[in-house]
Specification:
The protein is α/β, with parallel strands linked by helices and about 270 residues long. The chain has 13 helices and eight strands.
């Protein structure tokens, strides 16, 4: 299975990847490929878009039509592709900084419009590629190169942010919970509308080392021991959930999808559909 997955969905000439030893991003990239494989999508109908950062390297390794775009602008480029070719399945692979700092404005407005795309956020709680600066998801009190005394910023709950902006599907998985995360990405791609899956990764090189989290194995064990399925979380108090990762499908609803509504405008104006 592993060799077939690599041969079918990866650019073998680009491998091995350059992520640090123990980085969770390789696991999560495989999860995306597995989800696409499980859905039996034609590769010609899938476009992978990324911005800049550790996570965004995935677009260079995955053997699809791909765009490796500018920092924070992956969703903007993805919007252009979807508007031009609405039949395509667009998967944006982005990071916590790329999506919610410099790219935060694009995130909330794509969610507001309910554009049919899937945004997979590889969240490693740090700017790993550019020097270990703190990001919008670095937990309050944790250390980074730009927070040597601990970050005083409150951290984002990315799925909740997306849901509040208008996303019609949100979920959270982890690098440890592979089968569950694959299924969540699969559900997100199949959903018509703006979908976001936060995938909690591990960064042993910058985040782990700075915050004495141990090596990659210890960080994955922490996910195993501190992740709570959403079904169980519903019966837990806020105090019990403090410091835990709630994973699973977090929200889902139906409302008009943007490109289909746009086609109605074109038809009403008497224009020919592309």
């Amino acid at each position: 299975m592993a060799s077939r997955l690599i041969e079918t969905y990866m650019r073998e000439e680009r491998l091995p990847h350059i992520w640090c030893a123990g980085c969770g991003h390789g696991i999560l990239m495989r999860d995306v490929a597995l989800a696409i494989d499980d859905l039996k999508l034609d590769k010609k109908d899938v476009v992978i878009v990324s911005g800049i950062g550790c996570s965004s390297r995935a677009a260079g390794y995955m053997n699809f039509d791909t765009l490796h775009t500018t920092h924070g602008r992956a969703i903007a480029f993805a919007t252009g592709i979807k508007m031009a070719k609405p039949h395509l399945k667009i998967v944006v692979i982005t990071g916590d900084g790329d999506a919610t700092a410099i790219g935060g404005n694009h995130l909330i407005h794509a969610a507001r419009r309910n554009i049919d795309m899937t945004v997979v956020v590889f969240n490693n709680n740090i700017y790993g590629m550019t020097g270990g600066q703190f990001s919008p998801t670095t937990p309050t009190g944790d250390f980074a190169t730009t927070a040597p005394y601990g970050s005083i910023d409150p951290d984002f709950d990315i799925p909740r942010l997306a849901e509040a902006a208008g996303a019609t599907y949100t979920a959270r998985g982890t690098a440890y919970h592979v089968p569950q995360t694959v299924k969540l990405i699969e559900n997100a791609i199949a959903h018509e509308g703006f979908s976001l899956v936060e995938c909690v990764s591990v960064c042993p090189t910058y985040y782990g080392r700075k915050n004495k989290k141990g090596d990659a194995v210890e960080m994955l064990k922490w996910q195993r021991d501190n992740a709570v399925p959403v079904s169980k979380a519903r019966s837990m108090s806020a105090e019990e959930l403090k410091g835990k990762i709630v994973y699973g499908e977090l929200s889902r609803c139906e409302r008009p999808e943007y490109t289909k509504e746009y086609d109605k405008i074109i038809a009403a104006a008497g224009g020919a559909k592309a």
